[in-house]
Design brief:
heterodimer; A: 66 residues; 5-stranded mixed beta sheet; 1 helix; B: alpha/beta; 8-stranded mixed beta sheet
Chain lengths: 66, 258
């Protein structure tokens, strides 16, 4: 499927939820910010929140060093 | 404590001459800057860089909070420290370096980590807080302070070649809206490494945002996440909406003081 992730158009395997997409991209579910079409998705909802063709996503890992 | 009188002491009016010339800076704001109390929680790579510029630029009082001692491996990026500081408390070595930089600066030190038992007392009576931490749990405490008081907290982090800065002001959106709880995050520069100027730059962006907030100029990064990737040389800014169901700020009162 075609998605825009962090400003880049990407073709990724067919996924139906945020959780499945994160797993596909091998991104940890902890301390990551996910926005789908401008809305923030709470971590508790990753497993149910739908990802659809042509969605625009931001996936940002929390950077914790100081 | 009173700053020691330096033989080179000169008026802070001279120090802020280039600030006064800036568009949007009003003279009244300068007295606010001179009386501002800013807490820097964590005196590592971020805190070293932000403290240096905030002190030089004329912020009235800095409170430095850190329980650690200077280690040799800090010296590559924690630019207030000299080789002879190794083994000393970071807050003491930093306070000394900052007083040399600006004798009129008020500095107080808390030689302990920020935790559940001390955060309210340590942060009380500050106008603004800078996150210079390298751990998650105390960042959740800073976020609670931002939500409870409505006062600004300038969050930042840097690791590897990456840096982020995010400002919470007025309590929403908050850090939890964005990342959830970060208490369990254990990232370590010892494993991942960090490029000195990357963490320095994040600290300088924090200082810049703190000055914008204190001087009430421009558009601070409130509710916006600034991302810098030095490896690819790219930067992005993400608009972050508040989460209506955020457990930290979702029920935050709308009327804030300060």
């Amino acid at each position: 499927m075609q998605l825009t992730i962090n400003g880049e158009e990407r073709r990724v395997a067919e996924v139906d939820t945020v959780a499945a997409l994160l797993d596909h991209l091998r991104v940890s579910h902890q301390a990551v910010a996910v926005m789908v079409n401008g809305a923030i998705v709470a971590r508790e909802r990753y497993a149910e929140y739908p990802v659809k063709e042509r969605d625009v996503l931001e996936i940002v890992r929390f950077v914790g060093g100081g | 404590m009173e700053a020691p009188q330096s033989p080179w002491a000169f008026s802070d009016k001279e120090r802020v001459r280039r600030l006064v010339a800036l568009p949007g800076v009003r003279r009244e704001s300068l007295s606010k800057l001179a009386s501002a109390r800013v807490a820097i929680v964590g005196v590592g790579g971020l805190g070293n860089a932000s403290a240096l510029y905030l002190a030089a630029q004329g912020v009235g009082h800095l409170t430095l909070v850190d329980g650690d001692a200077v280690a040799q491996h800090n010296l590559g990026r924690q630019i207030l420290f000299r080789p002879e500081d190794v083994g000393r408390l970071k807050v003491e070595a930093a306070a000394e370096a900052l007083r040399r930089l600006r004798p009129e600066l008020g500095v107080s030190t808390v030689a302990a980590p920020l935790g559940e038992s001390n955060w309210r007392a340590v942060l009380a009576n500050h106008d603004l807080v800078l996150d210079g931490l390298d751990q998650g749990l105390p960042r959740d405490l800073l976020n609670r302070w931002a939500v409870e008081t409505g006062r600004p907290v300038v969050f930042a982090g840097a690791i590897g070649y990456e840096a982020q800065v995010f400002v919470v002001q007025g309590g929403r959106p908050c850090l939890h809206c964005l990342f959830g709880s970060v208490a369990e995050v254990a990232e370590d520069c010892a494993v991942t490494g960090v490029l000195g100027p990357v963490v320095g730059m994040a600290g300088l962006v924090q200082a810049q945002e703190a000055l914008k907030l204190l001087l009430q100029v421009g558009r601070p990064l409130v509710g916006r996440l600034w991302l810098w990737d030095a490896f690819s040389g790219s930067t992005r800014i993400l608009e972050v909406p508040a989460r209506p169901d955020c457990p930290v700020c979702g029920a935050a009162p709308t009327a804030h003081k300060g």
